[in-house]
Amino acid sequence: MEPAFYDRPVLEVARDLIGCVVTHGECAGVIVESEAYHDTEPASHAFGGPTRRNEMLFGPPGRAYVYLSYGLHVMLNTVCEQEGIGAGVLIRALEPLSGVRLMAERRGLLPERIRDLCSGPGKLTQALGIALSDNGSDLLRGPVTITPRQAGWERPPISVGRRIGITRAVDLPWRFCVTGSRFLSAPAR
DNA sequence: CATGGGATTGACT
DNA sequence: GTCAATCCCATGC
């Protein structure tokens, strides 16, 4: 992935991240679900301008914005668009690629339950061992990295729909999924 | 300084 | 389907 990848409209980045690979340590997975957020719409943490919590979103593109949801779940986002604009993509689900045994151990599940390892934004950070301390991670250098699509994922079929679990701006079709994937947090509709 | 809600999950009815 | 867990932080008094 080149630095300019993230310095584009967040909707383009969210779509293009589908099929790319998130890696942390020995664990990796293919992004099969993403959602875009932008400071111009009220569902975004960046809506209303920078605060100490969301300041990473307004920083330079290509870094990780990691935050805690509901007091216990860690969420991974990629910071997008130019510095000063609060835009990011929430990674919502992965298809596990490697490190499945460790993922299952972290998730407290049997390794054969592959579909349950990363099928949700809080699940995938737990499976990959991503923590709040990874906030600000350079996605090109690590410790959390995102790399381009591999063979078989050059042209993933993508479905677009409404974002999940929010109460504001609920009608924006800013959720992107691999059509028919069994690794989503919820089916595309 | 107190309060309440949230980009969720898993256990339970 | 319902609901509690759990904590950061934005907001308001």
Describe the structure in your own words.
It contains three helices and eight strands; from the N terminus they run H-E-E-E-E-E-H-H-E-E-E. Helix 2 (100-107) packs across helix 3 (121-128). The model has no long low-confidence stretch (mean pLDDT 96). Strands 1, 2, 3, 4, 5, 6, 7 and 8 form an eight-stranded antiparallel sheet that branches. The chain has 189 residues and is α+β, with helices and mostly antiparallel strands. The chain binds a DNA duplex (13 and 13 nucleotides) through residues 35, 37, 43-45, 48, 51-53, 67-73, 75, 77, 90, 92, 120-123, 163-167, 185.
Our measurement of the CA-to-CA distance between the termini, rounded to an integer number of angstroms, reads 30 Å
Strand content: 25-35%
Largest sheet entry: 8 strands, antiparallel
Proportion in helices: 10-25%
Any low-confidence stretches, pLDDT <50, length ≥5? none
Shape: globular
Helix/strand order, N-terminal first: HEEEEEHHEEE
Radius of gyration based on Cα positions: 15 Å
Total helical segments:
3
Assembly state (oligomeric): single chain
Structural class: alpha+beta
Number of strands: 8
Mean pLDDT: 96
Would you kindly provide a brief summary of this structure?
With about 190 residues, this protein is an alpha+beta fold.
